[in-house]
Specification:
Order of helices and strands: HHHHHHHHHH
Number of strands: 0
Number of helices: 10
Structural class: mainly alpha
Helix content: over 70%
Strand content: under 5%
Largest sheet: none
């Protein structure tokens, strides 16, 4: 192992020790209700993808200001994650999931893969599918770098489906080939 990789592994193990369990469901329900009351006007206005993404960022920023209350912190992050996913804000989704994974006992890699793969099944515009493909490719590359090959394989499968939808909607064959190359490259990298 390289020195940098060893330092990263030690840091990851240290971070895992400090992580907390996910707060109880009943407490999260109450916190969600309070969040929706506090941000009622924002939720009312969050009808389009861009407005949902803006509210997701706002909730993320609020969570990052103060993480002293684990229930409120997790509830804010979960609301931000769900809004960002619904609003096609995949960079925000990944940022939120990383924040969850730093503080709580969640598998951030699995959560990202599940959210991105589930989004493929939802009917979206070609533009939204392209943004989804780009986000999947970013997470795929990061997963390979972190040697999370099971996650990478799942993402390749979902990415192939999503890029096929982009090709079908736009006729952009080179776009899909780009992702097919990623699948071939992954096979070469796996142990």
């Amino acid at each position: 192992l390289s020195r940098d990789r060893l330092i990263l592994l030690v840091a990851q193990k240290d971070a895992e020790v400090d992580r907390q369990p996910i707060p109880p469901t009943e407490l999260l329900k109450d916190a969600r209700r309070q969040i929706r009351e506090i941000f009622e006007k924002d939720y009312t206005q969050a009808k389009s993808d861009p407005s949902k993404a803006v509210l997701a960022k706002k909730l993320l920023e609020q969570a990052l200001k103060d993480d002293s209350d684990p229930v409120a912190y997790f509830a804010l992050l979960r609301e931000a994650r769900d809004l960002a996913a619904d609003g096609n804000g995949w960079d925000t989704v990944c940022e939120v999931v990383d924040a969850m994974g730093e503080k709580f006992e969640v598998n951030a890699w699995e959560m990202k893969e599940e959210l991105l793969s589930a989004a493929v099944k939802v009917s979206r515009s070609a533009n939204a599918q392209e943004r989804l493909c780009e986000a999947m490719l970013d997470v795929l590359n990061a997963a390979v770098e972190a040697q999370q090959f099971d996650i990478a394989r799942k993402l390749v499968s979902s990415l192939t489906t999503a890029s096929g939808r982009v090709q079908g909607a736009t006729g952009n064959v080179p776009y899909r080939r780009r992702f097919q190359l990623s699948a071939a490259e992954l096979k070469k990298l796996e142990p």
